[in-house]
């Protein structure tokens, strides 16, 4: 019998996983808002190529998520795949710190996302397996909140070190390794994993969608349609600079986004557990469409600050809650595989999303990038509304 105290509905693994993601995001977000500026201002890279770099990094590495999830289910291990993924991401930092051309930045971004591909599905499976069904929303939202609080601290440190080091990006890239190392050590020494009994391991999961019903498949399709218009956040950063936000202040704008994201995630998760996850997901799609329209027409720095704040609210309403909803419509023995399929599909969609975003920026207008994103979000909202109605009809037919 599990005697672990769970005062908030989740135990030590979820708490430690939250701190792991906090430190890793401190590491990642110390450099993330600086990379597009480094590419554009220091290396002279155009926006289409920046979009290509982000698309390759996110989508190619995302292929690993489904294989990592399937392999985690197959061998019955989450912890060491998770540790390896975080370790690989930490080791990517020297590549960008030493970069003299865009191809080295691509290598660093790919390696960083490669690590994310390895760790994401096993980590999400640990959270799901460590939490009762009634508390999934708050557990995943707590994780997102901690992850995003790291994304508050990271840009704050970047802002501080930009001033201290006179805009020397490379020194900040080197320093970002320290919190990444802390994240790996937390996994090694504090994450515990229950070994599956022989009876539970008799069926080795096969990499197939046959394990999943129409609800899972439909939700993945809707999330993928949305992701095609959700181009990399580097375009939001570049838009902020274009509208007039000073380079040294960019990390603070990104900090605002992550602060709102972090503070809204847990209340949103608790509201989702109480009032329904589907409602908050739909609200998120609608809010995204409005925000991207706002980025398209924004003409002043005040509007950019407001939009970044509400963009953080959108993330709080959707990121953790989508995974919590997903955990309720997938089989118990195939959780990591399901999370892998979901994150791979969404990640692969980021390749055309970033390519389209960069091409529209260079060949049509910067606003066109955001008009496109607003349109796909609106389509996703309509599809998700139909999906909700289909679930209700299915549930009514069964009862």
Question: How would you characterize this protein structure?
Answer:
With 399 residues, the protein is an all-alpha fold. Helix 12 (250-275) runs antiparallel to helix 13 (277-297). The chain has helices spanning 12-31, 35-42, 47-75, 79-91, 93-97, 102-129, 136-164, 169-175, 177-190, 214-229, 234-243, 250-275, 277-297, 301-327, 335-363, 366-398. The chain is built from 16 helices and no strands. The protein has one domain (12-193, 209-398): Growth Hormone, Chain: A. The protein is 79% helix and 0% strand. It is globular. The longest helix has 33 residues, at 366-398.
CATH architecture identity: Up-down Bundle
Order of helices and strands: HHHHHHHHHHHHHHHH
CATH class division: Mainly Alpha
Query: Can you tell me the number of structural domains?
Result: 1
Uncertain spans, ≥5 residues at pLDDT below 50?
197-202
* CATH topology term: Growth Hormone, Chain: A
Helix content: over 70%
- Overall pLDDT score: 83
Defining key terms:
399 residues, mainly alpha, 16 helices, 79% helix
Quick recap:
The protein has 399 residues and is mainly alpha-helical. It is built from 16 helices and no strands.
Q: How are the secondary structure elements laid out?
A:
Blueprint: H1 12-31, H2 35-42, H3 47-75, H4 79-91, H5 93-97, H6 102-129, H7 136-164, H8 169-175, H9 177-190, H10 214-229, H11 234-243, H12 250-275, H13 277-297, H14 301-327, H15 335-363, H16 366-398
